[in-house]
Write a structure and sequence with these properties.
The protein has 560 residues and is mainly alpha-helical. It contains 25 helices and two strands. The longest helix has 28 residues. It is globular, with a radius of gyration of 31 Å. It is found in: Mitochondrion inner membrane.
Length: 560
């Protein structure tokens, strides 16, 4: 709360605090830790802290059956701490500290339920994020060309230099791994193996937005350069791919993960066009309603006896009215329902896209992805809220988890008023976007069309067999995120493993073994066994050898 009030103060007075804290001063060496407090970092910090407090409160009941609940809470707190470090540091080295802290703690949280699936997901998450960590380390190495690692001072001055370009592209690579843009997208749905409170805090509002936040700090480098255009293409495709994937997915948490991915694509793409304030705005509103969506999903899974399949749900609006109300509000906020949180940021982003100078392909990606968002949201509501319950008739569905509900209602309040509040705060003069009527209504039209499509796809009365079976190969391709999880696991590991097998067969167990140690040992053993046999078993041969030996010795002496 204090952070929030401070950020208001900084925002209204247009202030930035740059604090240097001398950690060690030894003779002529001084190690200085720098912190940057401006409206962005303070606002983001206040949101992270608010969501974290509600999530920890929520997990008190959600994880109540866990013996090691204290360890879980400590992990979440460590996560929040590294996030704080990342948010307030203007220095690449301390950013790396926070960044690596995030990666490590997120790995520990993904493998929290210890089974094979969790370990695989954790490994994929950790290794995908490793690429980004290495990119940041390389960026730190490139920063050695300048006087210090405080990138804040160099961004504008050195904008067009080759070194700054290298640093910018490396930071962009790091942000793309952390925010799961296209080549690295497969880890985000896999990370849903974590407990639901973790998904609500880590994989919706904070960890995945760290990459976007870092790029917001580096936004000067993106505008008017090839990097911005490249990022626009990749993030637009990410948004499109995640939207399509979510329409064919049946796992509740994975659908929400894919929707997070598509919103991240939206933030990244608007950021790459140079509108960093809009990206920040959407980042904050998205954090609110997505954390709420995950918490509702968690409550539903908790009550459904840990089943995540949406085909088994149905009629939840009767059995769990409060949870369903929160779920629907957050879903509508995600779709951009007028006057909820998501509407202000999404609508503004799409109108800015309309007046911007971008090509037809990007324009299509933006609007089609928005339609897909509404489409999978309506499909989700159709499967989970309407009709009858499809799982066991003996169920324990109740809406009595008051601790969970309190956590959800806190976020529900913010999901409703958060967007308009931030809109008044971040933009002191309202954006006046003047467009013809049909373009103004285009966003609304796309949303309604998407919703109708989602309803039609899910409607079983329309066509009794599941429509995805008609085009099975196509559905399989779209539903598995364009085969990305396969490419980033089997695809990478196949060739090294097959080469390893060849090398092992031909070298380690092949000729080198035959002419090397093992074979020599074998031959020596055979000879010694032969001699042992000779000496022990046959006195005649032994004496004969003795005579031969004396003859050889004698002849040797004679010829000397």
């Amino acid at each position: 709360m204090t952070c929030f009030c401070l950020s208001l103060n900084f925002l209204l007075n247009d202030m930035v605090y740059f604090i240097e804290w001398e950690v060690v001063s030894l003779h002529s060496i001084s190690i200085v830790m720098t912190f940057l407090f401006d409206w962005m970092s303070l606002l983001f910090m206040s949101f992270v802290l608010m969501i974290a407090s509600l999530v920890i409160f929520y997990s008190k009941e959600y994880m109540s059956s866990d013996i090691n609940i204290n360890r879980f809470i400590m992990l979440v707190l460590m996560f929040v701490l590294s996030m704080m470090l990342l948010i307030i540091s203007p220095n690449l080295v301390s950013i790396l500290l926070g960044w690596d802290g995030l990666g490590l703690v997120s790995y520990c949280l993904v493998i929290y339920f210890q089974n094979v699936k969790s370990y695989n997901a954790g490994m994929l998450t950790a290794l995908s994020n490793r690429i980004g960590d290495v990119a940041l380390l390389l960026a730190i190495a490139w920063m050695l060309n300048y006087g210090s690692w405080n990138y804040v001072f160099y961004l504008e001055v050195m904008q067009n230099e080759f070194e700054m370009l290298m640093i910018g592209s490396l930071v962009m690579l790091a942000a793309m791994t952390k925010s799961a843009q296209i080549p690295f997208s497969s880890w985000l749905p896999a990370a849903m193996a974590a407990p639901t409170p973790v998904s609500a805090l880590v994989h919706s509002s904070t960890l995945v937005t760290a990459g976007v936040y870092l790029l917001i700090r580096f936004n000067i480098l993106l505008a008017n350069s090839w990097m911005g255009q490249f990022l626009l293409l990749l993030s637009g495709l990410t948004m499109f791919m995640a939207g399509l994937g979510a329409n064919f997915e049946f796992d509740l948490k994975k659908i929400i993960a894919l929707s997070t991915l598509s919103q991240l694509g939206l933030m990244m793409s608007i950021l790459s066009m140079g509108f960093y304030k809009l990206a920040m705005f959407h980042l904050l509103t998205h954090a609110l309603f997505k954390a709420l969506l995950f918490m509702c999903a968690g409550a539903i899974i908790h009550n459904m006896n840990n089943s995540q399949d949406i085909r088994l749900m149905g009629g939840l609006s009767i059995h769990m009215p409060l949870t369903s109300a929160c779920f629907n509000v957050s879903n509508l906020a995600l779709c951009g329902m007028p006057f909820l949180a998501g509407f202000y940021s999404k609508d503004m982003i799409l109108e800015v896209v309309m007046i911007s100078n971008i090509n037809m392909f990007s324009f299509f990606l933006y609007f089609f992805s928005t339609g897909l968002t509404v489409c999978y949201s309506f499909r989700l509501v159709f499967y989970s809220m309407t009709s009858d319950l499809n799982c066991s008739s003996l169920n324990m569905l109740n809406d009595e988890g008051w601790v969970m509900l309190r956590g959800m209602l806190g976020l529900l309040f913010m999901s409703i008023i958060g967007g308009s509040m931030l809109n008044w705060l971040i933009f002191p003069t309202p954006y006046m976007i003047c467009l013809p009527l049909y373009m103004k209504l285009l966003t609304l039209f796309v949303c309604i069309t998407g919703g109708l499509t989602g309803y039609m796809i899910s409607l079983s009365n329309l066509y009794s067999i599941n429509k995805s079976f008609k085009f099975y190969n196509f559905t399989n391709y779209l539903g598995s995120m364009w085969f990305m999880p396969y490419i980033s696991t089997y695809g990478i590991i196949f060739f090294p493993l097959s080469y390893g097998q060849v090398v092992s067969k031909s070298f380690d167990q092949g000729w080198s073994e035959y002419f090397g140690g093992q074979h020599l040992y074998q031959k020596l053993m055979n000879y010694s066994q032969f001699l042992f046999l000779m000496h022990n078993n046959n006195l005649k041969i032994y004496l004969m050898l003795f005579v031969v030996w004396i003859l050889i010795l004698f002849s040797f002496l004679m010829f000397l």
